[in-house]
Design a protein that fits this description.
Blueprint lengths: L1 E14 L2 E14 L3 E5 L6 H8 L7 E6 L2 E2 L5 H11 E4 L13 H7 L8 H10 L15 H13 L5 E5 L7 H18 L2 E5 L3 H6 L2 E6 L2 E7 L2 E4 L22 E7 L2 E7 L2
The structure holds adenosine-5'-triphosphate.
The site of adenosine-5'-triphosphate has 12 residues, from strand 1, strand 2 and helix 1.
Organism: Nonomuraea soli
GO cellular component, one term: plasma membrane
Protein name: ABC-type lipoprotein export system ATPase subunit
Length: about 270
């Protein structure tokens, strides 16, 4: 069963007279219980895709489903309800996920609103991200790395069906980063929380069950269990991964040779 699905998603930003096509025809299915790392070069469209899945942006074209609800068909009240019932979100700037004058413990407890407060879970989440000792410090006085770990605990407070996290380890050292990955994995295994995590951190992508690489606004390749496969797009487009550009440079011409189970591309000179 899929918890998140995108079909033909296009996102165009308009700033003054300039148009930026951030996503151009993205199809993606995320099944329940998967932990997915969203990879790709800077500006590829990863944050944009995460915001669309979080219902924080409406796509210029295409559709996004969360747990069977087509987000584009919902009014704001229903959208808020679907988000509250399904999602835990960690935005890139960790401070934006927190209430600065509340303590770490109060931030996590506040995120449990709607559910019965579960004090054990508050303490457990804070211990697991290494913040047990400063649970009574205000979030606004914490370092960037501490706020980042707290933001992950807050996002998981409500046992969301889907965790969406944008670079949740960018300000963390190796040990704290591993604790966050472990928390995400345990949430998947023990509570069935699916995760989609934008990351540049190899330790994070290695710890998750699948990688999806966005290049130039499209899903370029997908990896599972150590094998990376290119994805054939809607119109048959395939992106040649950068590590093969010396064999088939962008702009070169290739002959297609059919095989029983696929094709071979051979560069043609001149
Ligand atoms: N609000 C906006 N207005 C205009 N252009 C935007 C806006 N947000 C993003 N973009 C542009 O859209 C493209 C994709 O941006 P996005 O932030 O999704 O990429 P990213 O893969 O997350 O990059 P990074 O790894 O650097 O965070 C970029 O060219 C970016 O400059």
């Amino acid at each position: 069963m899929s918890i998140a699905r995108c079909e033909g998603v296009v996102q165009i930003y308009r700033a003054q007279d300039v148009e930026v096509v951030a996503l151009r025809d993205v199809d993606l299915v995320v099944d329940e219980g998967e932990t997915v790392a969203l990879l790709g070069p800077s500006g590829a469209g990863k944050t944009t895709l995460l915001w669309l899945l979080a219902g924080l942006l409406r796509p210029s074209a295409g559709r996004v489903w969360i747990n069977g609800s087509d987000l584009g068909s919902l009014d704001q009240r229903k959208l808020d309800r679907v988000r509250a019932a399904n999602l835990g979100v960690v935005l890139q700037n960790p401070g934006r996920n927190l209430i600065p004058y509340l303590t770490a413990a109060q931030n996590v407890a506040f995120a449990q609103r709607g559910l019965r407060r579960d004090r054990r879970r508050v303490g457990d989440l804070l211990d697991r991200v290494g913040l047990g000792d400063i649970r009574d410090s205000p979030a606004g006085r914490m370092s960037g790395g501490e706020q980042q770990r707290l933001a992950v605990a807050v996002a998981l407070a409500n046992r969301p069906r889907l965790l969406l996290a944008d670079e949740p380890t960018s300000q963390l050292d190796g040990e704290s980063g591993r604790a966050v990955v472990e928390l995400i994995r345990q949430a998947a295994e023990q509570e069935g929380t699916t995760a989609v995590v934008v990351t540049h951190d190899k330790a994070v992508s290695d710890g998750l069950s699948r990688t999806v690489t966005i290049r130039d606004g499209r899903v370029g390749s997908e990896g599972r269990r150590g094998e990376n496969l290119v994805v054939v797009g809607r119109e048959g487009a395939v992106q040649v991964p950068p590590e093969y550009h010396h064999l088939l440079p962008p702009g070169s011409r290739a002959r297609i040779e059919p095989l029983a189970d696929g094709v071979v591309l051979r560069r043609v000179e001149g």
